[in-house]
Amino acid sequence: MAKLIFLGTGTSDGIPQIGCKCSVCKSKDKKDKRLRTSILIKTGDGNIVIDSGIDFRQQALQNNIKSIEAVLFTHYHTDHIEGITELRPLSRFPGKTIPCMGNKKTIREIKKRFNYIFSPLQKGGGLPQIKLSKIKNDIVIFNKKIIPLPVKHGILPILGFRFGNLAYITDASLIPESTMEKLNNLDILIINALRPHPHPTHFSFDEAVSIAKNICAKKTYFIHMNHAVSHKQFLKMLPVNMKPAYDGLELDFSW
């Protein structure tokens, strides 16, 4: 068995948004407080994080993350990679290097934006000890297979991931048929649902629900939600086997 923890379920602005006075941003419901979307997968062999975004330091402290054995990146947007700098204290142990993986474009952008990590001008202060690698085929971590799931974020090719009978997809606006074929027989589907009305680069609520119905997972959890609707409102709109996720929610699954 493995455990998944939702470190964050919000969009690039986070919820509450700075300066916003809407009912969701002012909500007292803890399930309406959403850090940037990210998850932690815990196994007996170690921890895997998908996306270390702007809020990663806060998320690591809140969830008592003391070690990470690998980071998988869905894509290179700031809310998904900016926290790579916060891997420094987790890679200070002698001989510790954290593998960080993504598609070709993501690895190229990380090298460009965080050039100081890979071409340091001087020693002092310390640097994250990470090793970048491109995802081309299935990945094996802890002797377990992870299947990359190519999807589209607008025109941008990005990745979701399948761990056993659990699949994780965020920021998508299109799932190609070749990827849909990899989503059979799921116990748990996690997929983005930005807001009620359409968006050019993210699934809306209706689009996400429709896709989830086609995939037919036993349970579906929605992520990457903005402040257009509260957790309670969204929950009332959904079939019984579908729910909005929330920060701190934990799921057990087989992998």
Compact description:
This protein is α/β, with parallel strands linked by helices and 255 residues long. The protein has helices at 56-62, 78-81, 104-113, 115-118, 177-180, 205-215, 231-237, and strands at residues 2-8, 38-43, 46-50, 70-72, 98-102, 130-134, 139-141, 144-153, 156-163, 166-169, 188-192, 219-223, 242-244, 250-253.
Describe this structure in words.
With 255 residues, the protein is α/β, with parallel strands linked by helices. It has a single domain (2-245), classed as Metallo-beta-lactamase, Chain A, CATH 3.60.15. Helix content is 18%, strand content 29%. The chain contains seven helices and 14 strands. It has helices spanning 56-62, 78-81, 104-113, 115-118, 177-180, 205-215, 231-237; strands at 2-8, 38-43, 46-50, 70-72, 98-102, 130-134, 139-141, 144-153, 156-163, 166-169, 188-192, 219-223, 242-244, 250-253. The strands form two sheets. A seven-stranded mixed sheet has the order 6-5-4-3-2-1-14. A seven-stranded mixed sheet has the order 7-8-9-10-11-12-13. It starts with a strand and ends with a strand. The model has no long low-confidence stretch (mean pLDDT 96).
Give the uncertain stretches in residue-range form. none
Q: Secondary-structure element sequence?
A: EEEHEHEHHEEEEEHEHEHEE
| Largest sheet entry | 7 strands, mixed
CATH class call: Alpha Beta
Mean pLDDT: 96
CATH topology (fold) name = Metallo-beta-lactamase, Chain A
CATH superfamily: Ribonuclease Z/Hydroxyacylglutathione hydrolase-like
Shape: globular
Q: Give the count of helical stretches.
A: 7
Secondary-structure content class: alpha/beta
CATH architecture: 4-Layer Sandwich
Radius of gyration based on Cα positions: 18 Å
Can you list the strand order of the major beta sheet? Answer: 6-5-4-3-2-1-14
Helix content: 10-25%
Distance between the termini: 6 Å
User: How many strands in all?
Assistant: 14
Portion in strands: 25-35%
